[in-house]
Amino acid sequence: MKRPDLKAVLAPLKPFQRRTVDHAFARLFLAEDSTARFLVADEVGLGKTLVARGVIGRAIEHLWDSVPRIDVVYICSNASIARSNLPKLRIGADGERSFARATRLTMLATQLAPRGGQPSLRDSRLNFVSFTPTTSFAMGQSTGKGTEREVLFHLLEPLVNRRTALMNLLQGSITRTDDWRWRLDHGKVPLDAGIAARFQSAFKARRELTDELRHLFDNWFWRHRQSWPEDARRQRNRLVGELGQSSPRSASMLWSRIW
Question: Residue 71, SS3?
């Protein structure tokens, strides 16, 4: 990846926006009493996104020769805003695969994987990744989306010698069993090798998770059913939520330190 053109990044800024960029950058990176936080508060329509892009541009220029990889993590209030703003904040050539749109932590394993003949984001010089607090981090006792459970299936399958039971457990609320199993058998889910290895290592270190899976397999999910008793659903949802959430007390260590 070529070094981003800082002049091109700053060129669209108005004088008051450029002053804000320069002051924020100085406080974050140059001041003797520098800070790790800086708040830009202004009315709607005065270009806070452009200011943020300018600060990112200056930070990239400042770090480019001193670090092997630069990751820009964008956290905003909802996925719609994230999808809209991330391309505006992104710096670099359009043809380079260097960003992952708003996603859950559980999807990083596939978002960062190599695809389309291009290297993984882990191997990119500059990355942009966006998250939204309510959808990215807070899973609780929910089974999440089907795509997340597909990733969990492919991560857990090498560790669990109960393929059909694992399929049944992770099917969640999907009603078309044949479609679900076809997705698991034939769908292409690229996985980042580093994340997969760390996830599997952390899972094996949590013996209680293996015991809970075995209990659910033996008591409920060893065969397919059209519907599951409330107790089975509750235990399943809690365990799948445990695997996917990001709090330190849970299986979050499977995600929070693997990127």
Answer: strand
